[in-house]
Amino acid sequence: MIKINLLPFRSARKKENIRRQVSIFVGLVGLVLSAMAYYGFLWSREIATLEEKVNVVEAETDIHHVTIRKVKKYEKKLDVVKTKRGVIQKLELGRSGPVKIMDAMTQCVVRNRMWLKSMEDKEGALNIKGVAVDNATIAQFMKNLGKSKFFSDVNLNSSKQVEIDKNLKFKKFIISCKALNPDMPDISTQAAAKR
């Protein structure tokens, strides 16, 4: 019988298997490292691109902040101009207001039957003192005031008979009302509307 010694062949085969496994392992490690390097390079390029975009956006944001500050500065100036313009318009209306109220008052007076002695204005509240021939004349005068767009809240405070001569008897009256300027908006109405 022939005996064959397979021990060196087995050891050579074992060495070959170990060598193959080591080379496969080294190849896989190299493949993994090269894949990691490739993706690392791609991601670093992506990060660099995003950082560049962030820098551009930050620069644009800084420019917009400067523009926003300029706009706010101009808005403040515009508010000041609007306030001044409103004051000027109010003064213009206030200048012509008393003239219009006096003209409206003369339109309400009952001619040849009454005369006014005084008119006192306290922040739009008028106290009118006068003398009339009779109560009907006072009532007509109050009715005329109520119809006018320049007056509201017309009230008779007092009416009493006075004797000027022995034969002449007249009615002395005091009427209160609110004077309005139809060209100027009523501040109390605006405040109520805002609530």
Describe the structure.
Strand 3 and strand 4 form a beta hairpin. This protein is of the alpha+beta class. It has a domain at 109-182: Alpha-Beta Plaits (2-Layer Sandwich), CATH 3.30.70.2830. The model is unreliable at 185-195 (pLDDT under 50). It contains 3 helices and 4 strands. The protein has a 4-stranded antiparallel beta sheet, covered by helices on one side.
Q: Brief overview, please?
A:
The chain has 195 residues and is of the alpha+beta class. It is 63% helix and 21% strand. β3 (151-163) and β4 form a beta hairpin.
Task: Please specify the SSE layout and strand pairing.
Elements: H1 7-108, E1 114-122, E2 125-132, H2 135-147, E3 151-163, E4 169-179, H3 187-194
Antiparallel strand pairs: 1-2, 2-4, 3-4
Helix pairs in contact: 1-2
Spatial sequence of strands, sheet with the most strands: 1-2-4-3
- List unreliable stretches of 5+ residues: 185-195
Count of runs of 4 or more consecutive helical residues: 3
The CATH topology label of the domain at 109-182 is Alpha-Beta Plaits
Beta content: 15-25%
Level-2 CATH architecture of the domain at 109-182? 2-Layer Sandwich
Radius of gyration: 50 Å
Distance from first to last alpha carbon: 121 Å
Mean pLDDT across the residues is 84
Relative helix content: 55-70%
Shape: rod-shaped
CATH class category name of the domain at 109-182: Alpha Beta
Q: How many strands?
A: 4
Secondary-structure element order, as H and E? HEEHEEH
* Helix/strand class: alpha+beta
* Biggest pleated sheet: 4 strands, antiparallel
